[in-house]
Amino acid sequence: MHHKIGILTGGGDCAGLNSSIKWVAKTALDPNLTRGRDMTVEVVGIRDGWKGLVEVDPSDPASVAKWVQPLDELVVRTWDRYGGTNLGTSRTNPFNPKDDRSQKCLENIAGLGLTSIVAVGGEDTLSVAHKLYNLGQKVVGIPKTIDRDLNSTDYTLGYDTALNVITEEVDRLRTTAGSHNRIFVVEVMGRHAGWLALEGGQAAGAHIILIPEHDFDVAKVAELLQRRRAAGVRYDVVVVSEGAKARGGEEVYLSDKTDGFGHKVLGGIGSTLAKEIERITGFETRHVVLSHIQRGGSPTSRDRLMGRYFGIAAVDLILEEDFGRMVAYRNGEIASVPLKQAIEKLYVVDIDKHYDVERYNGRRSSLAPKAWEAVPLPGGAAGDCGFSALRGKGFSAGHYRKPAQGVRKGPCVPGPRPIILPCRRIGRLTVQLRPVEPAAFRPVEPGPSGSSSRGLQAHRAGAFRHNEPAAFKPVEPAAFRPVASIAVRALPPVTVALSYQYPANPYYRILKLDSTAKALSLDR
What we know:
Blueprint: E1 2-9, H1 17-28, H2 31-34, E2 40-46, H3 50-55, H4 61-67, E3 68-71, H5 73-76, H6 102-111, E4 116-121, H7 123-134, E5 139-143, H8 159-180, E6 183-188, H9 195-204, E7 208-210, H10 218-230, E8 236-241, E9 253-258, E10 264-266, H11 269-281, E11 285-289, H12 301-319, E12 325-330, E13 333-338, H13 339-343, H14 351-354, E14 355-356, E15 361-362, E16 373-376, E17 388-391, E18 416-423, E19 428-435, E20 456-460, E21 463-466, E22 471-472, E23 481-487, E24 494-501, E25 508-516
Parallel strand pairs: 1-2, 1-4, 4-5, 5-12, 6-8, 6-11, 7-8
Antiparallel strand pairs: 2-3, 9-10, 12-13, 14-15, 16-17, 18-24, 19-23, 19-25, 20-21, 20-24, 22-23
Helix pairs in contact: 1-12, 8-9, 10-11
């Protein structure tokens, strides 16, 4: 049996591609793997991604020589140390609805005698691979994108090298920023995923990081920068993802032109933001667009190794005839997932876990508490208007300073009812109520600031401190709705007293108190 494997790279170039090509070839041609099997293996590279399979004419030797490159161990021996892709790439989409050439692609695959295809790419390249698989083609995928937005894998080729480029370039900007007392806005890639901006910005020590997953307030950005200047800092670095946008605004594009997959080219938010910062603050502000610099350069050791691991795994899938899958890195191990699962949605930054919406930066709490569980206090019965204790990571064993403050029996009467919680972490607390009789449910009217809503109080080591009053929201007629959302920052351990207004009738009891981690932050 003869196996002829074709490998191609599609979409944007990045470091690590050549490593994956090398190790697909080396592994497939390794005599130790084929010994004992009734098979021979041949590996060829397809030039310029899917474009090569669309444009090649299998009956024309000159065309085949142009679009197809035979690969062996001698050819690929040193490829892993170089960035980019030696096979070339493109954003050609054989399934482009404006020019569908998918049938031509399938005919050329058969004409070249290819028994399987290894597609190295991101969401778009692998979406083509998935469609070809559904049409009967034997395809496996290798994840590649500096955006790291592919689902079901913890790593994609090119990401680590791009992070290192961002860190190095921001380090260089610091010298001129500090010398001239300037603010620098650095625009990085990422499309609709903020991983490059978030982790690159954190590694580079950026003061503000703006990502697509959370719209930013320009006035708040300016305020954060003004505070820094007032504290005596000479310069600041703001890292912004190309897909980030101001609250109420839209994404910024370089042009309205689209590629074969329908994408417009993002870019320009860095320039727009720099002008707004200078207009509001008066501070001299410059912008730098790192753009394709992030894609270039020699691959880091991580990208070289991951290219190796992914290439070997791709050949494993082919030899096991486990097609329609993408190799992946999950929980510290090499694995594989269905192509459909890898492309069905983007892997983007989880704001609750990774982003501080108050600081516009990475979170300063790594061990986030689990969901808080509400349990009845002793003496409270179902139907009581009694308080529930909280059980979960981040709370002390007692839950309440005084048990008497935790139990209220009988009908609810108008007036504030405090909840005392000794918390190790303070975030945004959301109170949820459930009526005993859902049919008798009625909305809670917002309490006026400073009167019926007594606000939030923090106690630490005997010290008493007032914070902003609680912001009450009317409850819509439904089984579960938040009534109040209050944010406070304090050093742990701290006891928080949350007061809110009960309706007079019908009976209500606390269902649960939980954390909305979007605002979970801790000053240290």
